[in-house]
Amino acid sequence: MTVKVAINGYGTIGKRVADAVLKQKDMELVGVTKTKPNYEAKLASGMGIKVYASLAENIKLFDAAGMRIAGSLEDLLNQADIVVDCTPGKVGATYKPLYERHRLKAIFQGGEKHEVAGFSFNAVCNYKGAIGRDFVRVVSCNTTGLCRSLYALDKAFGIKKARVVLVRRGADPAEDSKGPINSIVPDPVTIPSHHGPDVQKVLPHIDITTTALAVPETLMHVHILNVELQKDATEQDIIGAFSSYPRIRLVASADGISSTSGIIEYARDLGRIRYDLPELIIWKESIRSFGREIYLTQAVHQESIVVPEDIDAIRAMTKLTESPEESMRLTNESLGLGR
Ligand code: NAD
User: Atom 37 (ligand 1): residue with closest C-alpha?
Assistant: First the structure.
C-alpha cells in the first residue's frame, strides 16, 4: 500500500518533510503548495515536484512569473490521503475546516496549539496513540528534543523530576527579519516556558519545569537538563541508555565538537543535505551523575529534528504499520539516521 501525501506550506519544515516523503517506499508525494513563485517553488518544480498555489488569489503571480503550476490547494487536497500542514504557526489551525471538508487526515506542527489536533506526537513516546487518528500535532523542535532524552532516561531509570534551561536560537538562518541581534531575551520572563507543559502533552507523568532564553544564534537550540532519577545511575549507565536510540547521537567535545557551530560543521562533514541533523545531539562530557541527580547538555537542530517524527506520524495515522519500531526503522534507514 502507498499513501498519498500532500504538503501545505513549503518553507523550512515543509521542504524537508517533502524530501523525506520522497525517500519512503510506502509514500507518494502528490504535491506541495507555495504562496508565491519564489526560488523554492521553482526549485521544487525543477525537481519534478508538483507545485500548487496555496492562495487562489495568487495564481496570477505564478502566471506572471511564467511558472506553470498544477492547480490550487483544493486540487491538491482532492488527490491526497493525508496532508502535512507546514504553514506558519497559528495558520495551520485556520486550514482545519478545509481539511475536514475534504475528509482528509492532517498533521499539524508544533506552532499550533495541542487542541488543534487533540493529540501531540513523538514517535518513540506515543506512536501507538496516533494509530488511525485523523488529526495529530507533531510537537515543536524543543519539545521533540526533550521528549527523546527524557523518554530514554525515564525508561531506564525512572524520572522523579526534570528541571531544564533552554537557550533558544533567535531565528532560523534565512529569517533576516527576526530574532534578537544584540540581546539575550528571557523568552518568556515568567516560569515555566511553554516547553515543560508541552512535554507533558506527550509524557503526562513527567514532573518538568522549563525556563528559556532566546539568543542571537541561528544554528541550534541548547538545553541544560538537571534530572532527578528514581534510582542511581552512573555516567556510563546513562551513556549506555542513550546509545540504543538511533535518534540520539552522542558527541564528544574532546573530538572537537565543542559548540553548536562545531556540530553543524560535523553535519556538513557527514554529507548531510542542508547540514540537517534530525538526531538529538548530547555532549558525552556534559553527562554528570551525583547518584540520582544528573546533568546533561543537549543540542537541537531546529530545522530538521521534527522531520522523522512527521514521517512516523503519517505511518501511524494511515496504519501503514502499527509497529512503532518498524516505522522508526524504515524512517531512520531512509534518512540515514543513527549512522
Ligand atoms: P516557514 O515560514 O519557513 O514556512 C511556512 C511556509 O508556509 C512558507 O512557505 C510560507 O510561504 C507558507 N505560508 C504562509 N502563509 C500561508 C498560508 N496562508 N497558506 C499556505 N501556506 C502559507 O515556517 P516553518 O519554520 O517551516 O514552520 C512551519 C511550522 O513548523 C510552524 O508551526 C512552526 O512552529 C513549526 N516548526 C518550525 C521549526 C523551525 O525551527 N523552523 C521547528 C519545528 C516546528
Answer: 13
